[in-house]
Structure to design on (397 residues):
């Protein structure tokens, strides 16, 4: 019955136990025995056949954790049952084992490890990492941000802990990977740092995301008892162009006002009009940070955004009730990099001409469309309004 329950629990909660790293353990016999110390490389349970004797102390030479076992009374027990003590980093030497222990100590085993994965929710990215200052034994904390957001959506720690003392790294845009500093003597990672910049030439200590990806999490291998990190792997996600994901909106924005109320003849009104895709002139703080984020992946204004924006506006806005402009019928010149031209119109005497242009907005993108509304207001207060489908046609009015 007991066996059945244990089996069920293992299936329901599969602890991911990895093969342990070998540990190099030096064992010192008690002084009154002949012979010097001996070194064992142990992984799974190791029986100290040479002893059956008395051990005064043990020391870790490589690896960070070993468990020590005693024998069962007079029987020669070669299994690792009945743990009596362990050595776990930062304690690497058990100087003098108590008399009771050294009489019985006769097997040892490397400690087990588990994997822990922390990963940001979709749409958020690692920008800041905190590293515990106890050789990472209380883990690494990642903070997941939406591009441009000043506050993280989620904060996650590899060891399920809340770090009280740590060093932090803030990337400007996105973290691109992790650099590890291994302790080659004890074979663990006491120090790591975030890689904020993609580099085409990286050393063996850098675990970097691909160029088009950003960091969204890490998997670490944690050793029991010592809690040290044995290995770190980055988890990366492709950074999608925001032009594909943003929510478009449009409206008329003023281009020029020509006041000829006091004139006796028509007057020429000159102004510049812009057409194409650019970055909005009224960047909010959040949009500006977001632009930094995407800029690192070569995503900005211009041709790269044009095609994606065209599809987004056509699909999500289509015929706009706000402007009476049909985005699915837009001309190809709308979706190229912004260009400006000088245009002039004639305003009759006694009239104020207001010219407005259709402007689309999506995330930090602005789309200036060659589509205008001309409003002429007369002295007696009446006005006429006219939609003009290009600046070429404006000239002819
Ligand atoms: C992140 O947090 C903001 C503000 O609390 C929220 O509006 C947004 O939906 C969150 N994003 C994700 C991907 O959870
Ligand atoms: C890495 O990027 C940061 C901005 O996130 C910048 O300040 C820094 O100079 C860059 N470092 C290198 C070596 O390019
Ligand atoms: C490894 O850690 C030990 C104990 O903290 C330290 O004395 C030693 O210098 C470290 N070795 C390397 C190669 O970092
Ligand atoms: C980089 O891309 C390759 C091919 O798509 C993939 O196999 C690999 O896992 C990626 N590396 C990282 C660190 O995501
Ligand atoms: C206002 O003036 C215009 C032209 O000067 C004229 O055509 C229109 O009838 C006038 N409207 C009113 C309400 O007086």
């Amino acid at each position: 019955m007991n066996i059945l329950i244990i089996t069920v629990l293992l299936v329901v909660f599969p602890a991911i136990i990895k093969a342990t790293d070998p540990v190099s353990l030096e064992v010192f016999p008690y002084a009154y025995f002949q012979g010097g110390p001996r070194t064992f490389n142990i992984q799974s349970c190791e029986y100290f056949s040479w002893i059956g004797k008395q051990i005064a102390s043990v020391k870790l030479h490589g690896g960070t954790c070993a468990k020590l076992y005693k024998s069962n009374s007079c029987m020669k027990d070669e299994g690792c049952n009945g743990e009596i003590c362990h050595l776990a980093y930062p304690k690497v030497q058990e100087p003098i084992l108590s008399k009771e222990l050294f009489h019985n100590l006769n097997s040892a085993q490397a400690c087990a490890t588990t994997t822990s994965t922390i990963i940001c929710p979709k749409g958020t990215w690692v920008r800041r990492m905190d590293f515990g200052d106890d050789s990472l034994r209380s883990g690494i904390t990642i903070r997941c941000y939406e591009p441009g957001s000043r506050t993280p959506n989620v904060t996650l720690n590899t060891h399920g802990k809340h770090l009280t003392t740590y060093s932090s790294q803030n990337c400007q845009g996105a973290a691109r990977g992790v650099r590890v500093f291994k302790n080659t003597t004890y074979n663990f990672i006491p120090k790591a740092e975030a890689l904020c910049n993609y580099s085409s030439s990286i050393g063996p200590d850098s675990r970097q995301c691909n160029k088009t990806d950003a960091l969204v999490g890490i998997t670490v291998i944690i050793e029991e008892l010592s809690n040290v990190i044995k290995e770190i792997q980055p988890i990366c996600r492709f950074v999608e162009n925001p032009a594909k994901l943003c929510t478009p909106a449009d409206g008329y924005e003023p281009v020029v006002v020509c006041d000829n109320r006091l004139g006796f003849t028509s007057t020429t009104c000159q102004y510049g009009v812009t057409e194409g895709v650019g970055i909005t002139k009224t960047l909010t703080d959040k949009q500006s940070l977001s632009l930094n984020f995407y800029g690192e992946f070569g995503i900005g204004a211009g041709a790269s955004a044009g095609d994606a924006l065209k599809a987004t506006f056509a699909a999500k806005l289509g015929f706009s009730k706000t402007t009476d402009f049909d985005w699915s019928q837009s001309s190809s010149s709308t979706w190229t990099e912004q260009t400006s031209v000088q245009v002039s119109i004639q305003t009759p005497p006694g009239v104020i001409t207001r010219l407005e242009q259709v402007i689309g907005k999506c995330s930090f993108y602005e789309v200036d469309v060659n589509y205008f509304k001309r409003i002429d207001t007369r002295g007696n207060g009446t006005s006429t309004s006219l939609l003009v489908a290009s600046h070429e046609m404006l000239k002819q009015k």
The longest helix spans residues 303-316. Residues 209-210, 213, 234, 236 surround 2-acetamido-2-deoxy-beta-D-glucopyranose (ligand 4) (CB under 6 Å). The chain is about 15% helix and 45% strand.
